[in-house]
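It is worth pausing here to work through a concrete case rather than discussing structure prediction in the abstract. The textbook approach is simple: state the sequence, then state the predicted structure, then interpret. We follow exactly that order.
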Amino acid sequence: MNILQVEHLSKSYGEKVLFHDISLGISKGQKVAMIARNGTGKTTLMNIIAGIDAADSGKVTIRRDTRIAYLRQNPSFDPSKTVLDILFTGDNEFMNAIHYYEESLEKFRHEHNAANQRSLDQSISRMDALQAWDYETRVREILGRFGINDLSKPASDHSGGQIKKIALAGALIGSPDLLLLDEPTNHLDFEMIEWLEDYLSRESLTLLLITHDRYFLDNVCDTIVELENDALWQFKGNYSYYLEKKAERQVADELSLEKSTNLYRTELEWIRRMPKARGTKSKARIDAFDDLKEKVSRKTTEKQIKFDVSARPLGGKIIEVNNVCKKFGDDTIIDDFSYIFKRGEKIGVVGLNGAGKSTLLNIISGYLRPDKGNIVTGQTVVMGYYTQEGLQPVEDKRVIDIVKDVAEEISMKKGSLSAAQFLYHFNFSYAVQHAYFSALSGGEKRRLYLLLQLMRNPNFLILDEPTNDLDIFTLQVLEDFLAEFPGCLLVVSHDRFLLDKLCDHVFVFEGKGKIKDFYGNYTAYYQHRMREMKQQQMARARTYEPEVRQEKEKKSGNKPTYRQKQEFEKLESEISALETEKACVLSTLNSGETGSVSLHELSIRYGELEQLIEEKTMRWMELGEMMES
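Step two, the predicted structure:
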């Protein structure tokens, strides 16, 4: 039985059909990725499944008692609330259970009666069912993984990336049966992405996610569903398998289209020559011709984006970074960094979140002044800077007006285009061009912002997280454009695939302001880092080994006394008795046949037993080593 069933779902906005009569079933433990072009309805479908939006027709069925968590693409919280407030309030079944337990316990303490006893018993059963006793501990553990340790800070003191992490932590903490994730890797650094990959791969939860991270898709998902031409296509396998089967389908579609086109020409000729008197057979053939015409016209109107804007030529001098230093308070972000950019090179920038990657880009672009050192920019340099924040228009304008504010005519590699032609060339239909900016999807806004940078014909491109919210198809086209880009490219990205494909070398933020220039792509750097970490571990082990040997030799010189032998034997029987008592307490706790007061006392005793067993076991092992010597 499926944990999630989507049946005959349709959704439109005005004349724009997002999807029509689509169906999807997800079974328990299945990990499904949904991919599609921006603006085709991925997030809308996710919102409908989560119950935030409504479909025009069809239904979504989720198995009863299924716990659901949903990470939205751009989560937002009350800026005055602290991290703890955000995660411990609201419509949260764990917190509801905790509050119910606390209220029931308080009432029972105030007045011992049958009604309060039942309420307390019910609240304890609910806490047990949800395993909510250690909820706060789990919250702190996962947030600690994400580098968010001060839970008393308000949301306003956190960056957009940290807010996304808090929301992701909130989704994971509840141990949901069905997890819905919309672009979970946005704003995460590589270490966090790798941790999340490992977490999702080994957990038994059911997963439906939207992501553009192709390595993530390969490592986590076992099913790919593609939303295309208002329909849903399903591929049982990871992203590599999907690419293989998609290519086979495209070849088959092309052959089918070629046959349909040839048949269409034949039938069109018959239609033109057919006499006016039409029988039943003729009518059937005419109806078939109309269906064939629709199929041919639909296929031939598909259009691929191509970023073929031109770049201005670069002179001999590009950009020189001379002994740049930057601090924020007591934190050294950049410490004495120098570099001379060369024509045509493509550099990735990697490091933990908060290490200073965006600060370096802001200094090179002139948006931020260094504390020491300087930036010298050549006269021929025309910079395009794609910031992480994206396009923030002063007022909500129509898309065509935003483009015309930059240029009425845009130079391409071959000729030029008007603003309207330029937008249409990049899959912004004339209807979308006259829509307001606020009506665009997240991916469409990012694509528009990217086009505004490219239409200036830059020869030095700085891209800060350009892959966020872009679909895989636009990413592939962007990568092809950047691979052939004749100017300089400096890119910060958590997309490992993009860095591997494009970059000659990477600037690595190592901490305390140190930036290392590593020659090779991201995978080469990652492998180098793993080798270094292994060597450091081996070095620590070699340093530690003489100390361990010395300690063992010291112990071997001291033969165990008669009293220590007696203690060793006594501990064995004590540990065995404690383990038996612990098993009995656990069995009683799980039986549901105890009162609330007894249950509380047994819970305390269970904790005491665990601590005693651990202490006595450590002493038993210590004495055991002495016995062996």
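Step three, interpretation. Residues 239-273 form the longest helix (35 residues). The mean pLDDT is 81.
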